[in-house]
Amino acid sequence: MNPARSAVVLVAFLSLCPQLHAGRGASFYLDRAAWHATDIVVANEGAIIDGTLTVLAVWDGKLAVGDSVYIPGLSKFAEEESRTVRTIFEFDRDVPPVVVSSQRMVLFLKRAKKESTPDKLASASAWQPASSVVRGIEESVAWIADDRAYAITQPISPGGSFLAEMLYSENEMRESVRSVVKICNQFRAATDLTDVGSRAKNAAKHVSSPRSYVRYQAFKMLAESGDDALPFLRRVLRDKSNVKLHKHAVEAFVTAGGEAVVPELTRMVGQELLFWKRAAPSLKYGWSKGRDLEQKRLEYLNDRYEIALAVFYALQKTKSPICKAAVEEFRDYWRSLPQLEDLRMPGELSQACDAVLQRLGE
């Protein structure tokens, strides 16, 4: 399949398979799997698919070529149907479906405990999937066939999960993994520092990373750094050149500062209200779907929406009454204009305001 058509293929497949829409499903995310893995290897499961694999190559960790690992969860892929790549072309009778083998698989694993078996075959309890947000090993394995990578994905949430082609070759995947592992090792070294300020300073270096999961981990470390992180987070929030970072900074800001930052969050409510009072009158109903707006302008408005939503979610974590009047004023203005209230998820932002006020009432 042409990689450039992958996104179209996934959406088309979902529209043809409504039975897959059954809530949150598993989805392989390379950066997340690589970040949490202690061992990343290419392995061969052989002709019998039972979860026993032989290591062919080592990308990271202490396993060696020739070692055997046992991952019982992989036995669920014994049937060909579970290894059939789902694309729109499978509905074309002239195009046979792609079925990946288990001859070359990339495993993202973490050690649960030291291996105690005398031979090279690790016990089942010695290995766990590195990423297990929903269903374990499905989020920690990729198949390689004809130098293309395939993995379980959920392109729309809620929605179904299925095996699909990724947008990289094996070499591209390996280089991407190495990049993530390198940054992850820097974070782990910083976590061992006793000086919280030094940890916060290290995290600050990565908040603008092009990798979203690295940015997530950077803001997570800042949030855990308490008062030491607040000066840097304030600088991020004052920087208007990269508003895409602001929603993440707000989330970290309230976690790091707690009730003490409510006055600043309240001022942000006022700033966002002023912005929308200037922007909203010229917007037409349905603008959020791209009508009559340039893409750059649409992206900026969506970023500002995300910032406002993040502020109200942050205020829901506090109980200081000083924000009450500002939140009420924002909510009332938002609900007064149909072109705002219908943005994305109808009522999402004004309901977030209600949640803040309800918490204050409690």
Number of E-state strands: 8
> How many domains make up the 3D coordinates?
2
Number of helices: 12
Principal-axes shape call: globular
The radius of gyration over CA amounts to 24 Å
What is the average of the pLDDT values? 84
Largest sheet: 8 strands, antiparallel
How much helix is in the residues?
40-55%
H/E element sequence: HHEEEEEEEEHHHHHHHHHH
Return the structural class.
alpha+beta
User: How far is the first residue's CA from the last residue's CA?
Assistant: 55 Å
The unreliable regions are 1-22, 115-125
Strand content: 5-15%
Task: Give a quick summary of the entry.
It is built from twelve helices and eight strands. The longest helix has 22 residues, at 170-191. The protein has helices at 6-16, 30-36, 170-191, 196-204, 212-223, 230-238, 246-257, 262-279, 295-315, 324-336, 338-341, 348-361; strands at 39-44, 52-60, 68-70, 105-111, 127-129, 141-145, 148-153, 162-169.
Describe this structure in words.
The structure is a single chain. This protein has 362 residues and is of the alpha+beta class. The protein has two domains: 3-169, no CATH class; 193-361, no CATH class. It has helices spanning 6-16, 30-36, 170-191, 196-204, 212-223, 230-238, 246-257, 262-279, 295-315, 324-336, 338-341, 348-361, and strands at 39-44, 52-60, 68-70, 105-111, 127-129, 141-145, 148-153, 162-169. Strands 1, 2, 3, 4, 5, 6, 7 and 8 form an eight-stranded antiparallel β-sheet that branches. A hairpin with an 8-residue loop joins strand 7 (148-153) and strand 8 (162-169). The longest helix has 22 residues, at 170-191. The chain is globular and about 65 Å long. The N and C termini lie far apart (55 Å).
